[in-house]
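Re: the 658-residue chain
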Amino acid sequence: MNQDEIAIACIRSTVIDVINKANSGHPGMALGSAPILYTLFTKHLVSDPTHPTWMNRDRFVLSAGHASALLYTMLHMCGYDISLDDLKSFRQFGSLTPGHPEYRHTPGVDATSGPLGQGIAQAVGMAMAERSLRAMYHEGERLVNHYTYALCGDGCLQEGLSQEAISLAGHQHLNRLILIYDSNAVTLDGSIDLSFSENVKMRFEASEWNVLEVKDGNDIHAIDKALRKAKKSTSKPTLIIVHTVIGFGSKNQGLSKTHGSPLGEEDGKHAKESYGFGGHENFYIPQEVYATFHETFFKRGRKNYRRYQRDLKRYAVEYSEDYHQFMKTMEGNVSSYIDDFDPHFEEGYKDSTRNTSGKVLNMLYNRVPVLLGGSADVAASVITKIEGGTNLSYDHPEGRNINFGIREFAMASAANGMLLHGGLRPYVGCFLIFSDYMKSAIRMSALSKLPTIYLFSHDSIAVGEDGPTHQPIEQLAMLRSMPNLNVIRPCDAKETAAAWKLALLSKETPTAIILSRQGLPLLDGTNYEGVSRGAYVVSKEHGNKPECSLIATGSEVSLAVEAQKKLWEAGIDVRVISMPCQELFLMQNKSYIKKVLGAPYHKRIAVEMASSFGWYRFASTVMCIDEFGASAPAKDVIDAYGFTTNELVELVMAKLEK
């Protein structure tokens, strides 16, 4: 056996041991793809294990995250801070080697992946970020100049998300994106022909991709040749189809049995012997294998890292301003651009919060040089376009207006990819009802601690004539149920500006800003400090203690203020609380929470034109909607569902009478 054959046999044998030790995992693709990753890591991928977050490294995304045992094995052999004991702790509580790769958890993992297709879309975002950053700076290729690789399987390509992302990447001509497709023709339920018969090559070619093919997944020379050719592409992303055998070496190779179950000791021994690597104890890795990776991957990475650092010092002298901006934003810090951001709105200002958000966005565009984004073909409705800005394209990589097309899921995942790459602050927008299409990507940003900014307009039944298909009911409850996501529903222009500022200041938590279609008045008591604490008294009671507290969000805050006036005329003294963000409010100390809520639990009413789910933690009575909306002019729908001043006044009176 030559050096390459020994290393690949050792990788496969270690994968078997890792999964057998855990008695859990997916050996099938991991064994089939071993030569692919061996070739990529030893001959092409540029990264430095001693500086795993080095900004100009190549990015690698394992979209088929269930093959994580292979990735962890590769990272260990390449010199990342993953020990043999870490491999032996695969899938165990608190280990560095969880069941699917997790960003910020395991050194060398560039993206959280596993939900099939999301890795592809995140890689698209990374490639977009690489090109955008290169175009933003003087001689930007000296700062950002790398490739983005991703490995996917049959399952990834069957997910609808993958086609959204593939289409977007082709349209944007992301020529530094290389997707490797492990085509083993088997999924969990059996042979792929049970459910999949399309021509993948033609599909990608129709989406403006180069397509290369490797007939034998064990032929590392053919894999190497394909990778070299892919890197020479000047105008298109490249797909490399590599035909592999699932569970290679197992008695059941080629069958779905090897997809998601350990081989076991007997079959594992058989597989190792078929590789010519039998007779060793489990987890045996000879020094010559470590040496192979040290002489290739490790040395190449160290050399490139040191060269980059030397050039970065020269760049800092030649382009001092660009250098400082780049270093600051690569760390995700844009606070210096917005610390003093406090836009003024004239008394009597009234507009929808979506329009106000657009105005705020354009103000921020001129302050924050790395702010970019767009919408899923609803820029004119969600107001996400930068006036006078350039559209991002192959010809204009410096553009900061992104036309994502009607691809909500890919849009959100690509934004996550941009943040995974670093150096940019992306925002994306669509109607709140279509947050359902993006839910898994929003969850991924929350899980990965990525401060993605989501703009969701048309936030209630006030959408009107478009009817129940476009009127959100349960979406706010869905978003609020998600850990590590701030959902901010501003009630006026000041709260909208505050929401934007908080979203940009966030470093590890994504933000969903929920925006109205209808005009909302500027309220006297709204302020940034209150929004930053999640809830606050926006209109105080006249006396020392309220008879009832009205808790509202968004457009319903002005409704509550109007009801407060009528109630006072009737001799009833109530407090109005704006609660734009439940998550931030619940982070406050108990004394602040008690002080803001004022009235006891049984004398609080929550008001929101959406599902009541989750509101009973704050109030014993809710004025919400637990059914779907209707198609009619907005005022008629609002009246029909009882969101009027008189209805709220009557509800308060009835409650106090009881």
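The first strand starts at residue 59 and ends at 62.
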